[in-house]
Amino acid sequence: AQSVAQPEDQVNVAEGNPLTVKCTYSVSGNPYLFWYVQYPNRGLQFLLKYITGDNLVKGSYGFEAEFNKSQTSFHLKKPSALVSDSALYFCAVRDLTGANNLFFGTGTRLTVIP
Amino acid sequence: EPEVTQTPSHQVTQMGQEVILRCVPISNHLYFYWYRQILGQKVEFLVSFYNNEISEKSEIFDDQFSVERPDGSNFTLKIRSTKLEDSAMYFCASSESGAAGAIQAFFGQGTRLTVV
Predict the structure, then answer these.
(1) How confident is the model at residue A57, as a pLDDT?
(2) Nearest residue on chain B to A41, alpha-carbon basis
(3) Nearest CA to CA, how far is A49 from chain B (Å)?
(4) Which of A90, A30, A54, A29 is nearest to B41 (CA)?
């Protein structure tokens, strides 16, 4: 069965500092991994995805994520946080069995402190 | 930029009543989805829809739920007899393709359903 874990409900970081939002996954085969962000009163917005290839993927708004197969992790990172990055971040996985739906984590609320 | 739109943004209904949540997917997309998020919990898959029929559904999507694409633009989720535990944020999503899995889904802003 597919699942995603986001171990931190809340992450606080000072503006200008690097940020990391953690995600680990469990699938029976190779995963497709996604990060989505939700701003207040907005839908889930796609940030980036890992399908295959380079383990470091770059996405929107300066975010990147590193796929680590041995640790089954897909942590979201940004070198320098902005106050406007404050939002709810969701990691999601889709497996390769043909199922089209995404399995989401519980979300991590990121607060960037000015 | 095209986007998925959902109406209403917030719906309050009495237990036992029927509700219809509405979504307008992105126009050239072929796969449509409903997800829900109970407050404080993870986003959960409900159902996917392709070619005018359900392609997948989760255990949550029981007989009280139904989906429909009544015309070329709308995609609706009906809950026949609402229960208190149906209170959640409901997200609609659409994607160009579902088979490859590599295409991301685009989500609407959600409808917050409150059953009282």
Answers:
(1) 95
(2) B109
(3) 8
(4) A90
